Amino acid sequence: MFRKLQAFAAIVKITVIESIQEPAALLVMLAAILITLLAPLFHFHSFGEEGRLARDGGLASLLVFGLILGCTTAGAAIHRECNSGTAAAALAKPLGRNTFLTAKAAGVTLVCLILWLAVSCATMLAETAASHTIPYDDTWITVADSRLRLYSLLAPVIALGVAALLHNRRRTRFGSAAFLLIPCLLAIVALSSGFWEHGGKWQPYTNRLNTNLFSAAIPLFFALAVLACWSAALAVRLPTGAVLLAGVALLGIGLSADAWSAGATVWSWRNIMAGVLPNIQHYWLADALARGGSAPWQYVMQTGLHAATSCAIALVVGCALLRGRDLG
């Protein structure tokens, strides 16, 4: 059992390292962060709540770009290794196919977790830096936190610069270093934002971040974990492009599940499909954050149990597909 755990951990580690070295992974993270941070610049209406559009846009970016990263990572980590013979070499050791696929899916999920940390921090920064109405002399003015916006945009630039320096001096992998440094620097900027007011005046440390956002962001990570497991299962037989298309189809089916499964009888195909395929509406809790609210943590835990069941179903399907595949 101990050797199996060691082999499982080794495959997870290798999957994460190889995945974050891919240039596509870094480009997906940069695109998600920049879209999240720059989106408030184009919001000209608050619709009754300041910062809501920035928050909802960041959560949407997390879901979309997390899906792209999970699908492309699964295709590269599983389908490519099955075709190249790397999987056959790994399975030549005392390692079962089920363990191999489960470890690969866990590695893909961890890569999505890193992206989740980065985009969650960027979403909090975008919401905090968005235009707010503050008192000024005897009136009220609407201003954005330009200092926080600048620091937020500088964080990924500095991360890329440090990664380049580490690559030049210590031969560290540029992509891996940048992929790990970006969420760290964004977290540092988020934590340091309490040292000044929204208008730019320095103050003793005060938490300005909407920490309730995590009650809606955590279920989205659960959704990404489900999509990552389904992507890993499909990558056993499908190439990366097909896995990405299948992931987009799963996302669309999951978002519209409440519509096409409404009124279905117990043993109808619609009800069975609704139970097997992920219902993304269960994980989208952005509306619960309106006007300072938060999602119930009991419901968040229930979404975690639902996600664990969906991941198990996806891995069972993937193991069945892998069992019948010739790895050469």
What does this structure look like?
The protein has 328 residues and is mainly alpha-helical. The chain has one domain (2-323). The chain contains 12 helices and 2 strands; from the N terminus they run αααααββααααααα. A two-stranded antiparallel sheet has the order 1-2. A hairpin with a 2-residue loop joins strand 1 (132-136) and strand 2 (139-143). Helix 1 crosses helix 5 and helix 3 (52-84) runs antiparallel to helix 9 (240-255). The longest helix is centred in the N-terminal third of the chain and has 33 residues, at 52-84. It is globular, with a radius of gyration of 22 Å.
Radius of gyration from the alpha-carbon trace, in angstroms? 22 Å
Largest sheet: 2 strands, antiparallel
Which series of helices and strands comes N to C?
HHHHHEEHHHHHHH
Count of helical regions: 12
Helical coverage, percent range: 55-70%
User: How many runs of DSSP E, i.e. beta strands?
Assistant: 2
Please mark out the parts with pLDDT under 50 across 5 or more consecutive residues, or reply none: none
Spatial strand arrangement across the major sheet: 1-2
How far apart, in Å, are the first and last alpha carbons?
A: 27 Å
> Looking at the structure, what is the overall shape?
globular
What percent of residues are in strands?
under 5%
Structural class: mainly alpha
Q: What are the main properties of this structure?
A:
mainly alpha; 12 helices; 328 residues; 3% strand; globular; two-stranded antiparallel sheet
